[in-house]
Amino acid sequence: MPNHRAAALDFLNAQEHVALERLTQLCSIPSVSTDPDHAADMLKAADWIADQFKYIGLDHIQVFPTQRHPIVFGQYCADSIDAPTVLIYGHYDVQPAAPLELWHSDPFTPEIREDRLYARGASDMKGQVVAAIQAVEAVLKTNPLPVNIKFIIEGEEEIGSPSMPQFLREQKQILSSDVCLNPDAGMVSPTTPTISYGLRGLAYFELYVYGPDHDLHSGMFGGVVHNPAHALAELIAGMHDDQQRITLPGFYDSVRTLTPDEHHEFSRLPVSRESYLRQTGAPELWGESDFLPQERVGVRPTLDVNGMISGFTGAGSKTIIPSQAMAKISMRLVPDQQPAEVAQQLRQYLEERAPKTIRWELKDMQGAPASIADRNHPAAQALAKAMEQVWNVPPIYKREGGSIPVVGAMQDILGVESVLTGFGLPDDNIHSPNEKLHLPTWYSGMKALVHFFYNLVEA
Amino acid sequence: MPNHRAAALDFLNAQEHVALERLTQLCSIPSVSTDPDHAADMLKAADWIADQFKYIGLDHIQVFPTQRHPIVFGQYCADSIDAPTVLIYGHYDVQPAAPLELWHSDPFTPEIREDRLYARGASDMKGQVVAAIQAVEAVLKTNPLPVNIKFIIEGEEEIGSPSMPQFLREQKQILSSDVCLNPDAGMVSPTTPTISYGLRGLAYFELYVYGPDHDLHSGMFGGVVHNPAHALAELIAGMHDDQQRITLPGFYDSVRTLTPDEHHEFSRLPVSRESYLRQTGAPELWGESDFLPQERVGVRPTLDVNGMISGFTGAGSKTIIPSQAMAKISMRLVPDQQPAEVAQQLRQYLEERAPKTIRWELKDMQGAPASIADRNHPAAQALAKAMEQVWNVPPIYKREGGSIPVVGAMQDILGVESVLTGFGLPDDNIHSPNEKLHLPTWYSGMKALVHFFYNLVEA
């Protein structure tokens, strides 16, 4: 059906303005899942997606309520009995936009500058969701394709997909599929199509350190009580040794050793000290010196303070010993680390290191293990071919530093493998101010998805 | 003139309700000197004091403008040529009230619970200023006293009295005095009148640590860039060794050694591990183990983080590597440390310890050296006698952990010694939520001041 494929691609090209309009509409909804104040925006975004599903011709459209934010479902059933079924995963929630003062345009008023669209969620992952909608629409509105398509678009990915496991269990029947297409990963460069086959897990905590029962005058009590900000600093500083290794007891015990083959593959990735310095603006790189930078984000676990606060942080000077200090601490996990395991290691570290001069409390926020997908899955091969058809080079395979808990959940609960890809770029500033999406790459990505669907059914 | 003294004391007693009304009015003005938003309140407080000066019968009343907040002056000139002159110092500015949520009543709506008045500034030091006004009024409105009295009440003490040196130089003539009464210190207990003869100095800084030029996705970049929150934590943790000694190079070089006599005197202070634990609510004491707690706040220099912030501190989880981290760091100095000297030591520490993986910036906020007053000054003896006349025990002499830069400035510029006292208590929560003033002790303090004036001229 080459003419069918061509027709779908023509339709896609003719619809670029619609794609942009849809992306603008979706990015205008501040669907910040972690912030209770945005609960109404979450519903608005979910309904908007359900409307698009209806418009492009899906049926059995449902907005499933959860404990927090709804999951949107829609499907297309092919006529033929033996049509393969592709489950397309996405999320409509985004990270908070703070700090607002660093944005050059309003995070929820999408603005195009040069060939990029700037908005929170443009790249992670509203752009990817719209790309999938465009590709499916192009296929459905031109010629019927012997592929069943199911969408689930959730609203809790940025908070660890807490509702997803129960949803997958409850809706196992309607979600049964041959493969999951998950475009929540990204490309390493605009000219390098990328398929991700590994994801790091995540464990997120809040650590509270309590000292005196109220803020104290630092002149009257400086020197007699342990300052909680110092105690927290000491605990954080001790979490890495001078080799930048994490010191939690047993932290690396279950971490797989890197094989020579993997090392060889990592060394071929088109990244370098210079490219990392350019993307981050950091004065120098940091981390375990016996691993390549791309290995440190790919196959090594990491620990980061995501936020830290204590005492008086306003303008001017206040001479106090703060009564408490807090840090948000998260770890990126690799096979075969378990969130519960590292949580216990962190507790043990605190029990061993925390002095009697302070009290501490550790709050477990979220956790998901790492996952590795099958690179040789037929769908992965169909996608690889599709990417080469668009970019004229075969995709590279990488392990993602980020975490997508749903991938593991789908393996465990649905028994469905995920094919991880996406059309965002490393400098898209996702989770950061001035998040952006490179539109030419985005349009190419839609084409690749159309090819992907046809490659699934054409030898 | 014993009947004169008695008349003044009777007048004072009859005016207690006026004293309370004045304190309530002054504490209702949110005169937070460090916050530009309160500039108008600062003027309001200064004018209110000038009005009281007029009412109690002072003349030459002036509100001197400064770079930031005005200084209020007023005086009483005795008839006799050889009358001694007492300069009464005070400040009408207060520390910020934050964190507001920890206050049980509005910090600027004074509320009496049991025998205490709760309000920001009630103890530090609006209550002390009103006490001095009450005592002077009682003396002036009963019988003329052969003592010249001059008041200067400034509005920048809580930000380090930056305008005071220039003011003292410019107004040297009108400020010429025999002694300065400074009631900005406090008592160690309600039954222990206290004269402070030493004050610690202060050096205040903001330390900024910069890493990547924007917040980064901790999954994409965790493990390759140095997290500024970690780097700041490492720098703060390194500022104390495991003996709780400060590690800045040369920090203790100019610190005077404690003499056996001083140690003996400190050991007689009515304070203990238990009293410090009770006042602070800390789980355990902390600090240099080879010094008594009261020595650590009295004669030893200390370093405290007063505030610290980095990254995402809102509700929920955000998985970023923050682009920067900041800490407010202040040191309490003792003789013979100089603020410029410790600032240099901190810079050297940072130059030696800060890694190349981050950038840092140190902002010098304020500084004042420590000072020691003459305990044998005739005015100090007059005050000691006055206190014994009220509390029936002689005062104890202590060195204050806090800092009152103006004391040193008066010694250097005016050549005037200060007698340091005050009627606040260690558990007044000054600089903390729920600051309060113990009213019975406050009324006793006013009486002591009346005795003080009479003791100055009566053998």
Automatic annotation (TrEMBL), chains A, B:
NCBIfam families in alphabetical order: PRK07907.1 (NF005914), PRK08201.1 (NF006053), PRK09104.1 (NF006579)
SUPFAM superfamilies recorded: Zn-dependent exopeptidases (SSF53187)
Sections of the chain in a coiled coil: none
PANTHER family assigned: BETA-ALA-HIS DIPEPTIDASE, SUCCINYL-DIAMINOPIMELATE DESUCCINYLASE
Keyword Transferase assigned: no
Species for this entry: Levilinea saccharolytica
Domain Peptidase M20 dimerisation: 197-356
UniProt KW keywords: Hydrolase, Metal-binding, Protease
Stored InterPro entries: Cyt/Met_Dipeptidase, Peptidase_M20, Peptidase_M20_dimer
Gene Ontology molecular function terms on file: metal ion binding; peptidase activity
Record protein name field: Peptidase M20 dimerisation domain-containing protein
Biological process annotations from GO: proteolysis
Entry superkingdom: Bacteria
